[in-house]
TrEMBL record:
Domain of life: Bacteria
Keywords, comma-separated and alphabetical: Acyltransferase, Transferase
Domain N-acetyltransferase stretches: 1-155
UniProt protein name: Phosphinothricin acetyltransferase
Biological source species: Cognatiyoonia koreensis
Pfam families: Acetyltransf_1 (PF00583)
Keyword Transferase annotated: yes
Length: 155
């Protein structure tokens, strides 16, 4: 089930997020999220979760860049646990945030995908995102530079 996140989802979201931070290059961030940071993230939303007897993923969007000229474009984030993949939950989360974004006047979603995350790139392409940018060595994690692929979908 895809639903809006609540404060009660904070421990599960924090666990998922911090696992990605510690173990993957899906995010270039190397500092774990605190309880307060996750609580603020959920409160400031919008955040949706995939829940199949427990939260196994989440998706959100927010400003792409500061400034009034960018108010109609947003950058999103989507994360699923390994065991939740391949069940349509990612598509469900993306549909939920796209609908919410459109209702807020957003006309494009941007995905910043790690160059090492080929599954994430393929997922976004399957959902109609097009690669619009490539930044070599944009991130640094685990002692190496990592490229960033920018993908866009017009809503």
């Amino acid at each position: 089930m895809i639903r809006p996140a609540t404060a009660d989802d904070a421990p599960a979201v924090r666990t998922i997020w911090n696992t990605l931070i510690r173990e993957t290059t899906v995010t270039f961030n190397s500092i774990g999220k605190t309880e307060a940071e996750v609580a603020a993230f959920l409160e400031n939303g919008p955040v949706f979760v995939a829940d199949i007897g427990g939260v196994c993923g989440y998706a959100s969007f927010g400003p792409f860049r500061a400034g009034v000229g960018y108010q109609r474009i947003a950058e999103h984030s989507i994360v699923l646990t390994d065991d939740a993949r391949g069940k349509g939950l990612g598509r469900g989360l993306m549909n939920a945030i796209a609908e919410q974004a459109e209702s807020q006047g957003i006309n494009s979603l941007i995905a910043g995908v790690s160059g090492e995350n080929t599954a994430g790139q393929a997922f976004h392409a399957h959902l109609g995102f097009n690669q619009v940018g490539y930044i070599p060595e944009a991130g640094y994690k685990f002692g190496r530079y990592i490229d960033l692929v920018l993908m866009q979908k017009r809503l």
